[in-house]
Amino acid sequence: MINRIKAKRWLLCAASLLGVAALLTGSAVLGAEDEAEEIAPLLPEASYDYTVKKDIEGTAQSETLLETDRLVCENDRLALYVDEEEFILKVLDKQGDYLWSSGAAENEAQQMTGTWRRFSQAFLTMDYFNSTGASLRSSARYSKETADLEYTGDGLAATLRFQEPDATVRVYITLTDEGFSVRVPDDEIVFNKEENKLARLYVMPFLGSVYADSIPGYFFIPDGCGALMRFEEPNTYNSSTLLRVYGTDYSVQAPTAYQNGLAPTPVRNLLFPVYGAVHGYNQNGFMGVITGGEAYSGFEISPAGVKIDFHWMSPVFIYREQYRQSTGSSEGFSVVQQTPNTVNAEVTYTLLSGEDASYAGMAEAYRGQLLEQGGLPEKQEALEHIPLYVQAFMADQASSLFGTTTKVFTTLEDVTDWVGRLREEGIPNLLVSLYGFEKGGYSGGDAGSYKLERRVGSEKELEALYNTLNTAGSGLLLSKEFLRAYEGQYKESGFLYAINRVFTYTPDTGYLFDRRYYLDAPTVSRLVESYTSLPSYKRNAALPGIGSALYSNFKEGQEMSRADMLEATQENLKALREASGIVALEAPSQYALAYADVLYNVDMQHSRYIFETDTVPFAQMVTGGHIQSFAPWQNLSAGGSSAILQMIDYNTYPAYLLTEAASDEFVQCHTNTVYSSRFDDYLQEISEVYKTVDAVLSQVSGAAVVGRSCPEDGVSVIRYDNGRTILVNYNSYEVEIDGATVPAEQAVCIQSME
Question: How far apart are CA 211 and CA 304, in angstroms?
């Protein structure tokens, strides 16, 4: 069965995969002395990767303290030191007897030029714009005479000077029970030359850095579901890459347009403001969480081979950006953002040792932090069988002789029939989302309108379907946009304004509409308010968009910063949560997780940058047991047996986007990219895939992951807090794991040996 599905998938997806190729926005990297140079970025690849690589092996040798390192403070677990000559911070983890340093070791720094040497040992580095708008780089310098060094009971504070832009920044460092924090208040960043403007601030860019493959380990990158950059021998790369937490702000940086009908290469958002490093297998690591300024943050990632042979990764805070101002022609000119973002940067570090020193340990630690802060729902009750997610595509706009018309693909009668047939196949738990149910269909319905398209069905039929599915583990959801609108779906007065005085949008396929506009916060609030007055059978919500995009508003008199928008989005999600029975969010960022019962169309890959050596299920390990996760639509994805095994590996359930009509009915529709969705064509496959996944994942329903390892290539071992362990074998031959035999391309669940 699995091989048949695999062959079918690749045939269906070949056309989509062959056409995807585009460049990403460039990233500033060190070039000549103190200059930020714009060059071609590292590229993502548009492909699927189900490779599971064997865990790293080996141990890391700790650095040693120098005579110039002064003990600042300590507790039972940690000791904080500072080199008073160079202002290099060092933290000793007594539990692992390992020393972490904010700068490169002296013998390693000597291999670099002056610019890179300063960068590798500087506690802070900034990019700034000069009077001509040029982007330059300067690393902090330390002088005892001007630092105003202040020691406190649990840390220290110091003023660092930036010579070239003539600026000073005061930084505060505090030791905690499990690590330390670094804080940079906005009001203590001072430029003595007004013509110079702060663009970006890098915090301890060389913390955890490694020369070539001298230390076994990796950086963790929160890209998509999660990625690793292993410390390997240098390769030839063009540049480092800056990835934004919660994605790009399209109100400042315009999105890449479609080219000849082809979408830009997809780049996944950083869903979490988290990164980390591991030195040695199950030896020592740290997790860094951006706890201040997350809306204006990102991570700069540089593999060995970009100018120098070091792997480094740094939190970056963005105070100003350069954007393109249109002149009414295709040319335009570059403008520097005048008003800085309110950032108040802070990064909180947690040190990890032993088995906790891994990406799985980071996920468990971060999950605990979110629970303490109310950022994650409590554990869900275990179900006897996992649910299946079905998105029923009901209607959409289609071109016609006299403009457009509404075309219906699926009726409520059809969906009711599906439910009966799926249950006859032994699938008791169903989450059914109605997509394009409203008058005018998916791309033609008014924003905020829940009036049914007449040919889809009646209110009585909708309520009856709701009652059929209103059982434990099942439910009927209505999929509705609260954040985006096509032309005609809402009046322009409710659209977001970009910084260059145009509406904020993302490009669309262009068949009927080439842009999709974003709605401002007051408009979204009005839509949410109208939602709360709906009858109960319409108040299970599947919400695409909201929680996964975060843009500023520059409309005069209604300006909202990206940070304000984050807060407003959370308020709207809270209202939706309180009014709904079930809330399903499409691949949301961390700030939206507290309001979700279900996550659908979740990332199962990272962005496929060439420096990303491994795909790991960090996101699923954070949310698993607390929120149900569903994979991208199986009928619109490639992968076959590996994709099914990955669902089991990542504790993610199957999902399908289905219609009653055949795909040739979509040719003249705006959503003509849905190339295969007929229910009758997929019923047998759905049954087989569901039973394969349910046989394993039902045994860990409601449980959370406490560990994941890969003892050999193509093999995953996932431990859960209910005492069960899942063994996944992606290989074409059987393997022996923990005394259990796992057949080729299969997964089994066993009682944990521990």
Answer: 7
The 10s digit of each residue's pLDDT in 256-299 is 766 666 666 667 889 999 999 999 999 999 999 999 999 999 99
Closest CA to 689 of 742, 722, 739, 652: 652
Exposure class string for 556-582: b at 16+ Cβ within 10 A, else e:
eeeebbbbebbebbeebbebbbebbeb
Say how many C-beta atoms besides its own lie within 10 A of residue 214's C-beta.
Answer: 16
pLDDT digits (tens, 9 = 90+) for 639-685: 688 999 999 999 999 999 999 999 888 888 888 788 889 999 999 99
Distance of CA 561 to the CA centre of its chain: 21
Question: What angle, rounded to 10 degrees, do the helices at 459-469 and 412-424 form?
Answer: 20
pLDDT tens sequence across 395-425: 999 888 778 899 999 999 999 999 999 999 9
pLDDT of 258: 63
Long-range CB contacts for residues 73-77, cutoff 8 Å, separation at least 24: 73/151, 73/152, 73/153, 73/154, 73/155, 73/175, 74/175, 75/175, 75/177, 77/177, 77/178, 77/351
Q: Are 412 and 456 in contact (CB under 8 A)?
A: yes
Question: Which residues contact residue 557 at a Cβ distance below 8 angstroms, ignoring those fewer than 6 apart?
Answer: none
Query: How far apart, in Å, do the first and last CA atoms of the chain sit?
Result: 35
Count CB atoms within 10 A of the CB of residue 501. Answer: 11
User: Smallest Cα–Cα separation from 731: which of 704, 711, 701?
Assistant: 711
Q: From residue 340, how far is each of 76, 136, 138, 314 by CA, in Å?
A: 41, 17, 18, 21
How far is 298 from 315, CA to CA, in rounded Å?
6
Q: 3-class DSSP state for residue 473?
A: coil
Q: pLDDT of 581-591, one tens digit each?
A: 999 999 999 99
Helix (H) or strand (E) holding 284: strand 284-292
Q: Which amino acid appears at position 54 of this protein?
A: K
Confidence of residue 638 (pLDDT cuts 50, 70, 90): confident
**Contact by Cβ (8 Å): 100, 135:** no
Element (H, E) at 121: helix 114-121
Closest among 215, 212, 217 to 232, alpha carbons compared = 212
Coil, helix or strand at residue 675: coil
Residue 392 class from Cβ within 10 Å (0-12 exposed, 13-18 middle, 19+ buried)? buried
